[in-house]
Amino acid sequence: MSTSTIQFGLDHVMLRVLDLDRSLAFYRDVLGMQVVRHTDYESGRFTNVFLSFDPSTQSSLELTWNWDQDEPYEKGGAFGHLALMVKDVHQAVDYLQEQGVRIKTPPKQMSHGKRTIAFVFDPDDYLIELVEPLA
Predict the structure, then answer these.
(1) 36-45: pLDDT as tens digits
(2) Counts of helices then strands in the chain (DSSP H, E)
(3) How far is it, in rounded angstroms, from Cα 26 to Cα 33?
(4) Is 6 helix (H, G, I), strand (E, B) or coil?
(5) Which of 22, 97, 117, 121 sits at a 20 to 30 Å CA gap from 131?
(6) CA–CA separation, 68 vs 8, rounded Å?
(7) How many Å apart are CA 24 and CA 36, to the nearest integer?
């Protein structure tokens, strides 16, 4: 069997968050994602919230809040960043700054490339890259 007979699609990416309300305020209220599903698992003492920019598509972001987690999660060395497509990186960064979002790297031309990119932090210090469409 080969991959040509199986169709794969990205379903979701999961991030563990320390403060669900603060994370929802960022992803839902600042970035404009829509909550697709919100489920509390009392026996496991955690909550999963799935968000999407377009709920009619398959891909989503899963925020997992473990109720008893008091300390920030270690980010590790393997995870890099989430990337969000925007029409104008400069305009997006200006908006995010107005919303109080921390900017790691202001808009710049990608090293060894032609795209304009920028990096910002979410409330749990996960890195988010903003990219413009390829020319």
Answers:
(1) 999 999 999 9
(2) 2, 8
(3) 9
(4) coil
(5) 22
(6) 35
(7) 12
From 71, 74, 98, 129, active-site residue = 129
- What are 120's two structure tokens? 């910002």
Q: Does 129 qualify as catalytic in the annotation?
A: yes
Rg (CA), the chain: 16
Q: Which two tokens stand for residue 50?
A: 């799935």
- If one compares 39 and 75, the residue with the highest pLDDT of the two is 39
Bridge-partner residues for 14, per DSSP? Answer: 62
The pLDDT of residue 75 is above 90? no
**Model confidence over 93-134: pLDDT tens digits?**
999 999 999 999 999 998 888 899 999 999 999 999 999 988
Kindly report the number of other CB atoms within 10 A of residue 48's CB atom. 17
Chain-wide mean pLDDT for the chain? Answer: 92
